[in-house]
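User: quick one, sequence for these tokens?
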């Protein structure tokens, strides 16, 4: 769904879309959308500033490889969003230096906003920095490679410090 300026000039656009898995590209090979993504809301054009307001609610279940054990980790998301996009001035150079207060501002370029872009950004922002299957995930054993959530392999990590080995050789 394209939130087009041409239409927004005439009326507010109700949003009621379903993105099936695969419809939105998250540009992350370790991240999968495993349920329909349902988004509802409204897009409003604010004049004369030509800011586009997009607000609503989305829900989806995402799945990522656990950062510690690499097994699938599930992330059901249900979130409200209330966003303002400003038109990117035509004269603005490609590399814009933003002051700290301005970094939260989102821009759109051209004739409107692709809803899939809004949705992708909201999903990525909602996911935790550390994607783990559960808070107490014990990860993979560095010795035998076993999943320590499933097996108690009992491996002991032995640290061999070469400097001590060298000393021992001297004393011998
Ligand atoms: Zn895990
Ligand atoms: Zn082990």
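Assistant:
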């Amino acid at each position: 769904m394209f939130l087009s300026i041409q239409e927004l000039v005439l009326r507010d656009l109700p949003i009621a879309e379903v993105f099936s898995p695969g419809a939105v590209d998250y540009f992350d090979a370790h991240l999968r959308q495993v349920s329909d993504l349902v988004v509802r809301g409204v897009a409003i054009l604010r004049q004369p500033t030509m800011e586009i307001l997009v607000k609503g609610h989305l829900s989806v279940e995402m799945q990522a490889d656990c950062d510690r054990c690499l097994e699938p980790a599930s992330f059901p998301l249900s979130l409200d969003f209330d966003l303002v996009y400003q038109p990117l001035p035509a004269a603005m150079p490609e590399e814009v230096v933003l002051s700290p207060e301005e970094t939260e501002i989102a821009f759109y370029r051209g004739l409107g906003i692709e809803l899939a872009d809004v949705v992708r950004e909201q999903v990525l922002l909602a996911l935790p920095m550390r994607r783990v299957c559960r808070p107490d995930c014990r990860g993979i054993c560095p010795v035998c490679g076993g999943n320590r959530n499933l097996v108690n392999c009992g491996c002991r990590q032995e640290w061999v410090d070469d400097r001590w080995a060298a000393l021992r050789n001297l004393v011998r």
